[in-house]
């Protein structure tokens, strides 16, 4: 029988490329061949990665050569355009492989991209969705579609009647993913999720892979009878294998100076507050000022990633661009106490011994990276799945504290200081969080090591696929 041969299609975003490329690594480790597909622009920016006899890249245009479209950028339009370009590319890749007498064993793709599944079905090729958020989120969306829609939607307005789903604490309005909020400008993203879930239910050959692991979400991974979730995480760049530039071989889309590592080397153990809001979002100017006030009042050293937002600012969900690189009023004081950078190699930062706390927007990759590195968190969710992820951090795993906003939705400096002191200030709760973080770190490393649960689950899935 021919060697298994997989196609991986990654949506062109950092939070998709990272886990998708790690999945490629795991598949290569089994002796299979992999064709990795994303846009030409994203691929050009992936660092430290070379094709080999079993790893091929097949890229497609995202239209960048047609010039920038930022002035009237619409995420909905962008997704439609991506769907069209990506479907066509996947068709061509399949046709080309058939032309050589080959056939893909399975097409894996990062959710949400139901169009890839549709193409796979046209050619009768099995497909596997790589869900890049926690199993908890898949569960919430699944139950929302299957009988709990009213309960979850009402909950957004009525905090006195929380929704109870299998294996989760009662869901309150502040935990509900914002795509489900009535009137959300991102509701169209939920319709894609719904489509993905329906096709997973209707396609016997389709599989659902989740970037999580049993010890982290054991009940959630088993919360749906009719859809089996296969835990293949944590899918994170390994620190071994790092090139001489220090660039992660996982496909960092933004590279720059690495002075911050030298600076971290000079700081005491577990003392530094690391602050980052992922690859898409940024804070509004007033929120940044409050963040700065909070940091200054703790007096603790910090490393803060401030970058331009691609799509939206501080979680108001209006989909507007924030492009200003505004100076903070207290920049000079901030620069004496810590460091501000436009991007960093996050896994390397989180695994640095001087980092003691991560102020995070709770994007799933960031959350998982913090878990794997054993760093307690201040959960500062902005939108989408991040609200439910913050609930996991504070209420389920007890490895962090969640901030509360004021009546205008702004998290004030005093609130940030309070949360930072709860995590870093010593005392029973702080020690408890540190102990829980350490336990999860050990479990994550056990699950992700060569031959661990993730490899075993993937191997069983591949055997199923190969035997048809
Ligand atoms: C998006 C959504 O916003 C998030 O809610 C969802 O869970 C995944 O998709 P994003 O906001 O980019 O993701 O956050 P996250 O999932 O945390 O991914 C960001 C990635 O960028 C992480 O892997 C992180 O290590 C990396 N990163 C971020 C850096 O390498 N350097 C930085 O300075 C910031």
UniProtKB/TrEMBL annotation:
GO terms for molecular function: quercetin 3-O-glucosyltransferase activity; quercetin 7-O-glucosyltransferase activity. Keywords: Glycosyltransferase, Transferase. CDD domains: GT1_Gtf-like. PROSITE patterns: UDPGT (PS00375). It comes from Eucalyptus grandis (Flooded gum). Its EC number is 2.4.1.-. InterPro entries: UDP_glucos_trans, UDP_glycos_trans_CS. Gene3D superfamilies: Glycogen Phosphorylase B. This is Glycosyltransferase. GO terms for cellular component: cytoplasm. Belongs to the UDP-glycosyltransferase family. It is an enzyme of class 2 (transferase).
